[in-house]
Amino acid sequence: MLHSTLFNYNLLDMLREKLKNYNIILASASPRRQAFFKELDLGYTIQVKEVNEIYDTNLTHSKITDYLSQLKASVFVDLNENDILITSDTIVWKDEKALGKPKDFEEAEKMLQNLSGQMHEVITSVCFTSKDFQKTVNDVTKVWFKPLSDEEIDYYLKNYKPFDKAGSYGIQEWIGYIGIEKIEGCYFNVMGLPTRLVYKTLTEIANR
Predict the structure, then answer these.
(1) Which CA distances in Å does 123 have to 95, 111, 113, 126, 181?
(2) Of 23-32, 35-44, 80-89, 151-160, where does mean pLDDT reach its minimum?
C-alpha cells in the first residue's frame, strides 16, 4: 500500500513539474468545479467572463456541450503564451432534448417529474484552450431515477433550491441519496466535471 501511495505521489509530482511553466485558468463560477480543481491538487487561477449561452437548435447531445464550452472560451481573447484556459458545460439529455438550468420553481418541478422513474444522460464537455491549440473532450453518464413522489420533489426543491443545476438536481444532495437507483459511467461527471478526463488531458498536454 505504501509503495502504491508513493507511486501516485510521484506521478502527481511529475505532472506538476511538467505543468509548472503553464498557468491553468479555470473559467467557471461553479463552486463544485472549483472544489474539484482544488481536490485535483494542481495550481490554478479563476477567471470568469459572461457569455450568452445560445446555440443552434440543430445541435444535439454532446455537440451542444462541445459548442458551449468552446463558446465560453471564445471570449478570452488575451491569453498569454503559457496560459491553459479550461471551460466546460453540462446538460441533462432526455427524450432527444437538452435540459439546462431551470428558470424557476415550476420549471424545476416539471424537470424532476420528467426524470422520475426514467433514465437520462448527463453530458459534460471540457475545452482546453491556449494561444496555439484547442482540445475539447466530453463524457456521458447514464442515470436512473426511481419514481419520485410529488412530496419528495416538493421537499427537495424547497429545501435545496437546485436552480443553478442542469436538470434541476445535484446527485450529491438529498435527492440523489433517496432517488437515484443506479448510474453507468463517471459519478463526478454528473456533478459537473469528469475529473479523470481533465487529469488525463492535462497529462497529455504536459507531454506534448
Answers:
(1) 14, 16, 20, 10, 19
(2) 35-44
| 185 vs 76: CA distance, rounded Å | 32
pLDDT band at 12 (very low <50, low <70, confident <90, very high): low
Pairing of strands 45-46, 97-99: unpaired
- In tens, the pLDDT along 97-126 reads 999 899 999 999 999 999 999 999 999 999
Q: Which of 13-17, 160-164, 190-194 has the lowest mean pLDDT?
A: 13-17
Identify whether 56 is a catalytic site residue. Answer: no
Distances (CA, A) of 193 to 1, 9, 75, 77, 125: 28, 22, 21, 24, 8
11 or 65: which leads in pLDDT: 65
Give how far Cα 83 sits from Cα of 31, 90, 103, Å: 22, 23, 34
Q: Which fold has domain 2-206?
A: Maf protein (3.90.950)
| Residue type present at position 189 | N
**CA 125, CA 62: separation in Å to the nearest integer?**
7
- Of 89, 104, 150, 164, the catalytic one is 89
Average pLDDT, the chain: 91
Cβ count within 10 A of residue 76: 16
Write down the residue that cell numbers 453507468 correspond to. 184
Residue extents of the structural domains in the chain: 2-206
Closest CA to 144 of 161, 126, 169, 163: 169
